[in-house]
Amino acid sequence: MERKDFGSWLEGPPQLNSQQWPGERLGRPDKGPGSVARFGRRLGALVLDWLIAMAISAWLFNSDSWATLLTFCGFQIFMVGLFGHSIGHRVFGMQVQSMEGGPIKPWVGALRSVLLCVVIPVLFTDADQRGFHDRAGKSILVVIK
């Protein structure tokens, strides 16, 4: 009986052998409109959106930490769910789209936003730089300009 090579959990998750850039296997370009948004843009948008939530929380709720988180979450649910982008996404030239390239449904924006606020799902990305919050809603954050 021949031994088949099944690999080991020590090797980590399977890697995409021929993928040269994030989104290639999804039919996305390497750069420009429609390409997968990279870490720098994502971080910039997140920081800007968080600063907006902090300013609103300071103005209305005396900078209460829970109020800041809930403001951020509500802001994300509203903006991403209805428009496909937050202010930070728009400033940094990004949009959340369905995997087919169209707009996402409002419930996908809500699910994505809640998972974003939990933080942990965002930290686990695949080879296409999609976090669990994007994979759960079958969405992708792409460059639009």
Could you walk me through the main structural features you see in this protein, from its secondary elements to its overall organization?
It is a single chain. This protein has about 140 residues and is mainly alpha-helical. The chain is built from 6 helices and 2 strands; from the N terminus they run H-H-H-E-H-H-H-E. It has helices spanning about 40-60, 65-85, 85-90, 105-120, 120-125, 130-135; strands at about 95-100, 140-145. It has a two-stranded antiparallel ribbon. It is elongated.
In short:
The chain has 145 residues and is mainly α. It has helices at 39-61, 65-83, 87-91, 106-118, 120-123, 132-136; strands spanning 94-98, 139-143.
Secondary-structure blueprint of this entry?
Elements: H1 39-61, H2 65-83, H3 87-91, E1 94-98, H4 106-118, H5 120-123, H6 132-136, E2 139-143
Antiparallel strand pairs: 1-2
Helix pairs in contact: 1-2, 2-4
Q: Which structural class best describes the helix and strand composition? A: mainly alpha
Which overall shape is indicated by the principal axes computed on the Cα atoms? elongated
Query: Low-confidence parts lasting 5 or more residues at pLDDT below 50?
Result: none
Instruction: Give the topology string: H per helix, E per strand.
Output: HHHEHHHE
State Rg. 18 Å
* First-residue to last-residue Cα separation: 57 Å
Query: What strand line-up does the widest sheet have?
Result: 1-2
- What percentage of amino acids are in beta strands? 5-15%
The number of distinct helices, counting runs of at least 4 residues, comes to: 6
